[in-house]
Specification:
By secondary structure, the protein is an alpha+beta fold. The chain folds into 3 domains: 109 residues, no CATH class; 41 residues; 126 residues, no CATH class. Helices cover 37% and strands 26% of the residues. It contains 9 helices and 12 strands. Strands 1, 2, 3, 4, 5, 6 and 7 form a 7-stranded antiparallel sheet that branches. Helix 3 crosses helix 4. The chain is globular and about 80 Å long.
């Protein structure tokens, strides 16, 4: 159940108090199957297992896990357009006339009505949790769009959820460039073996990507001397978690190292016990990392005022 990516939002203590009712409100917003003429549906699904009787949240101390589910009909535009063209051509051949724009649009709408009920359905799941004690919303995705869509689902369920994106007081790009160029990393943080360097002067500037690379190597330093800045940087925190940190403060390729996984063990009696142990360990480790993220970049918790 360990997250692989982290997109982060913050919320105030007053908002945290309102989240006590999450379990009750999500029940009214369960994921329902796509109707015959619907392209997609969104809603909440159990964090573990399947079934309408299962709970939609799982809470350990002040952290509550939830999962946003989705169903999307797969109806490729190419399939629709080819069938549309076939019907238009048939009319032209049989009736000897050209199909106008309005009629073409009507034919396409009829096609969608005909094809949608037979389309395949793709299921999706996005896990997230709220840390009410420290004011974090943590979503297991590196996609800003997916994160915003999931946040919208939570807002609709609660009626209001003023969680805000991170607004760092320290520029992540400048700070990470200093870490890489001068080795001025905070205590407990070490360089990984991956980075992305870009020329910030233009949107189409030169890009240097390094993987499985000694980041102290002279060739990396040369890129920095030529004016490139860090946009992605591989890091290890306290020899327990490795990740790639972006200049947008999205955490990618999150991995809990062996010392952490050994603490989890494998003697759990059932899926619920396994979820409980995994989620407790996840939130404990991430609470330490996110506290440091707040310290390094200046992303304080919003106040109620």
């Amino acid at each position: 159940m360990f997250f692989r990516n982290l997109t982060l939002f913050r919320f105030s203590p007053a908002v945290a108090a309102d989240l006590e009712r999450l379990d009750a409100v999500l029940a009214e917003h369960r994921l329902r199957p796509c109707g015959p003429l619907e392209m997609s549906t969104r809603g909440f699904v159990p964090p573990v297992g399947r079934g309408e009787e299962l709970p939609l949240t799982h809470t350990v101390k002040k952290c509550t896990l939830l999962t946003v589910g989705g169903e999307d009909k797969l109806l490729p535009a190419q399939v629709v357009n080819e069938e549309l063209q076939r019907k238009v051509q048939k009319i032209a051949e049989q009736e000897g006339r050209k199909v106008g724009g309005r009629e073409r649009k009507r034919i396409k709408e009829d096609l969608l009505t005909e094809l949608l009920p037979r389309a395949f359905v793709r299921n999706s799941r996005l896990a997230a949790y709220v840390d009410r004690q420290h004011g974090w919303l943590v979503l297991d995705t590196a996609s800003r769009k997916s994160a915003e869509n999931a946040l919208t689902q939570v807002r609709e369920a609660l009626g209001s959820f003023p969680a805000v994106p991170l607004a760092p007081e320290e520029g992540p790009r400048v700070l990470m460039t200093d870490w890489l160029a001068n080795g001025n990393l905070p205590a407990g943080l070490t360089l990984g073996d991956e980075c992305e360097l870009r020329d910030p002067a233009t949107a189409t500037g030169a890009i240097a990507r390094c993987r499985r690379q000694d980041l102290d190597a002279e060739e990396v330093k040369e890129h920095l001397r030529n004016g490139k800045q860090v946009f992605l940087l591989g890091l290890t925190f306290d020899d327990r978690i490795s990740f790639v940190l972006g200049e947008d403060l999205v955490i990618r390729k999150l991995k809990f190292l062996d010392v952490v996984m050994d603490e989890l063990g494998d003697s759990h009696s059932d899926a619920h016990a396994e979820l409980d142990a995994g989620f407790a360990l996840l939130t404990l480790e991430l609470a330490r990392l996110l506290a440091k993220l707040e310290e390094w970049f200046g992303v304080p918790r919003p106040t109620d005022g």
